[in-house]
Amino acid sequence: MDSRQLRYFIAVYEQRNLSRAADQANVAQSALSHHIANLEAEFATPLFERKPRGMEPTAAGERLYEHARIILRAMAAAEREIKEGGSVIAGDISIGMANSGMKAIGVPLMRTVLTKYPNVKLSLTESLSGATLLHLMRSEIDLALVYNPPAEKDLVAEPVLEEQMFCVGTEKLIGKSKEPISFEEVTRLPLILLLYGLSSRALLDDPVLLKRLEANAIMRLNSITGMIGALTDGLGCTIATDLFVKEQLKAKTLVAREVIEPTLARTLYLCRLRNRPMTYVMEEMCRLIRSLVAEQVGRGFWQATLLI
């Protein structure tokens, strides 16, 4: 198995057709078919099911596709690293962020990459922390800015900042924002919580308090748009940062009350996979992310305590 065979395999997988794949790979269809047959012989298992209308990947083909993408991406990065060294920051970089991270530093990150790093191709993904972490564990992204990732031996997680959490809802439902609310009172309110999946502690640092909130939740959502709509419509309240509902707080459609006895917080981490070597572009993007986070906290846009 070599990189050429993997490229041909990916072309067939993505096109589902030998003729179109041959055009994409700029190779004769017979040669393409020969390479796929050699791969199947090497693995001693079919990678595609031949059908009248094209090529359908088998379970083995699906698994190989995931590995092939990672392998070719790593090979390309290695080639750039060796040829260019640290003199030029160049290459592809894929970064996943929780909603708060995107809201605070997404645009400044894009602007800086476009103006200062013309040889960097940035892919930026926003999702809930659990989904972002899953993308990282599958090597679909290079860096992840997420809340409270689980302790994994394959994960390098650097704490970046700590945010205070508030009880957020309409004034009619949770009362006036200037008055603190106790945690016990919060548990008796109609709570709507976001689903975080793999990173279940993304909402709070304290797992015991989190379980109490989850036990009393009337609804779980996997949509930020849905959450904002539910809150502004008075269907329930939630636990969130002021950044999460910054626009709604400014418009006074929602209020945020400080939670006491105890206060609630969560920690943001910058994560990468331990078994993937750091490239120059990854190192530079880590530095840039830390710098932008510190800048947004310093100017008061992101109400948080820096941990870097």
UniProtKB/TrEMBL annotation:
Residues 1-58 form the HTH lysR-type domain. One of its GO terms (molecular function) is DNA-binding transcription factor activity. InterPro entries: LysR_HTH_N (IPR000847), LysR_subst-bd (IPR005119), WH-like_DNA-bd_sf (IPR036388), WH_DNA-bd_sf (IPR036390). Keywords: Activator, DNA-binding, Transcription, Transcription regulation. One of its GO terms (biological process) is regulation of DNA-templated transcription initiation. The keyword Transcription applies. The keyword Transcription regulation applies. NodD regulates the expression of the nodABCFE genes which encode other nodulation proteins. NodD is also a negative regulator of its own expression. Binds flavonoids as inducers. PANTHER family: NITROGEN ASSIMILATION REGULATORY PROTEIN NAC, TRANSCRIPTIONAL REGULATORY PROTEIN NAC-RELATED. Belongs to the LysR transcriptional regulatory family. This is HTH-type transcriptional regulator CynR. The gene is cynR_1.
